[in-house]
Amino acid sequence: MVTLYLLSCSADSTSPSKKAFETPNYEGQRIVQNNCVACHSPGGDADNRAAPPLFAVKKHYLMDDQDREEFIAQITAFLLNPSKETAKMPGAVKKFGVMPPLGYTEAQLKDVAEYLFDTDMEEPDWFQEHFEEEHGAQTNTLSNPHEAGLEYAMNTKSILGKNLMKALNKGGAAYAVDFCTTRAIPLTDSMSTAQEVKIRRVSDRPRNPMNSADSSQVAYMDKIRTAMTAGEPMEPWVIEQNDVLISHHPIMTNDMCMQCHGEPDEQIAPEVMQKLAGYYPDDEAKGYQPNELRGLWVVEMKK
Ligand code: HEC
Ligand code: HEC
Questions:
Q1: Is the C-alpha dihedral spanning 7, 9, 14, 17 positive or negative?
Q2: Is the CB of 117 under 6 A from ligand 1?
Q3: Tens digit of pLDDT for each residue in 240-267?
Q4: What separation in Å is there between the alpha carbon of 180 and the centre of ligand 2?
Q5: Which one of the ligands is nearest to 61 CA?
Q6: Which of 1, 105, 219, 234 has the CB geometry, 3.0–4.6 Å to 227, for a possible disulfide?
Q7: What are the phi and psi torsion angles at 138 (to 5°)?
């Protein structure tokens, strides 16, 4: 989440629109980076994206000459209850379908809207530059391992998320459990090969014991939770080991995760519970709420 910290620094020093607002809204920044960019990625090719990039969405909302308060009110209203009727981007609705509801509270969505308004998302040192440069992350690994690692993690997340969504649409949660079980690890592996880095997911409450966080990873997760509660930025954590750099990035839950990681029998359907019990007798990854820290991306990059 340090990214958050890095991003905010650059935004503070260069963007004129930033001057009035000394600190970015960290809660909003965290939500945008971890939950919005996966679909609204700033780069990537047009055929492969799940939604318009956020800077385009922002531009569209600003076309109506809105002031800050109005902008925040309208974005918050849409996100609370996304629908065809309230959407201002009919072209995007036609192309991608209406955005799914994400289960955030109104206060959290206001934080998101504030962050979007106050941050210049077209600035090169926002996400964009690195997503668009074909070899951005590689050239960048040494000078900024944290940001390079985040980019790898977000690329993987977006592929994993797209495949998970496909499986959910095709056969519901019980079917998708089979997908996660048989495909999640091979998928992260193939992403790693494609990107010439090793990417893993770990958790302090693992479903699959192969994904258990070690004690230093658990300690970092605790640190992230403390910073989140305090509304403070999080320190990046990059380890240097012989010829590799290892960066760590939070994995957050959203509404969609609840059907497999939420309350047993309330949010996780009985047939899904049954499947999970069969595959994972020691499953600890239940009982989460949306917007909770679920785990870490661990990204190992060659120096
Ligand atoms: C699962 C994918 C997905 C995620 C995650 C997601 N969006 Fe979207 N979003 C879409 C799609 C698809 C559209 C285009 C269709 C539409 O306009 O509803 C969209 C459209 C929008 C719009 C424009 C709506 C309009 O038409 O007026 C806004 C604003 C927006 N998203 C903000 C966000 C924010 C902020 C987040 C993070 C809190 C987020 N989105 C997370 C898929 C997503
Ligand atoms: C269809 C059910 C399903 C959904 C939806 C789902 N997961 Fe999972 N998740 C699983 C299964 C099954 C595993 C174990 C996969 C494995 O064996 O590696 C898992 C594993 C994980 C892990 C690896 C650590 C561990 O506990 O083994 C993380 C992190 C994770 N999920 C996060 C999420 C997040 C965040 C979301 C929502 C964006 C989500 N999951 C949605 C079923 C699901």
A1: positive
A2: no
A3: 988 899 999 999 998 889 999 999 999 9
A4: 7
A5: 1
A6: 234
A7: -65, -45
Question: Which residue, chain included where needed, has tokens 């994206």?
Answer: 49
- Taking the CA of 177 as reference, the closest ligand is 2
Q: How would you classify residue 287: left for phi > 0, otherwise alpha for psi between -120 and 50, otherwise beta?
A: left
What is the number of the ligand 1 atom nearest to the C-alpha of 104?
38
What is the residue-averaged pLDDT of the chain? 80
User: Is the CB of residue 56 below 6 angstroms from any atom belonging to ligand 1?
Assistant: no
Our answer on whether the CB atom of 100 is closer than 6 Å to any ligand 1 atom is yes
Among 24-33, 123-132, 160-169, 239-248, whose mean pLDDT is lowest?
123-132
Contact 102, 290 (CB under 8 A): yes
For residues 63 and 80, give the distance between their C-alpha atoms in angstroms, rounded to a whole number: 21
CB distance 251 to 293 below 8 Å: yes
pLDDT higher than 50, residue 4: no
80 lines ligand 1 (CB under 6 A): no
